[in-house]
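Hello Y.,

Per our agreement to keep a running log of every chain we model this quarter, I'm adding this entry. I've kept the format consistent with earlier entries: sequence first, then predicted structure.
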Amino acid sequence: MGVVARHQRYALPPRILRHSSACRSPSISRRSLFGRHPSFLRLVDIAAYDAQVPIFDHLGVTVANLSRATEQFDAVMQALGFTREDADGSVSWWREDETELILFPPRPGGAGSHRHGRVGWQHLAFAVDSRAEVDRLHAIALDAGWAAVRNPKLYPRFNDRYYASFVEDDSGIRIEFMHNPPGDATVG
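Predicted structure for the entry above:
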């Protein structure tokens, strides 16, 4: 069943169900919500939720060492306001109305660091509200063991307001913290 069909079948995108207060209730699990009340779910108007759900539901990243990557990502993701969930064989961070980030260990024979510039992942950019927030997150990442690729600075080749930093974890996964206010906004 395709993504659209799955969403229409249950009337709510899975991320809304996963992160709803009903699914977090100790007495109602996702399984019981689907198993006992599927007709209730079909009654909910999906159109009301479409505008609130990002097109990217989640981003899965394979890392060389899940324990070490969890230590490195956790500090950054918590600082961004995401909630961590540990599962059997993965770790994820989520926040309402945001794309979920999931880390996975490599499959057997798939170990080794990612090489920036090769086919695959390039980098993930986190848009933040100010230059000060770029600086703060950059410092948090360095304290958590990320390596600085580029320290916070302006990038006039993009525009005169684009302020960013780049860091890499032990697996070679690169992220960017960036502040790019609209052209008519005050630079912060």
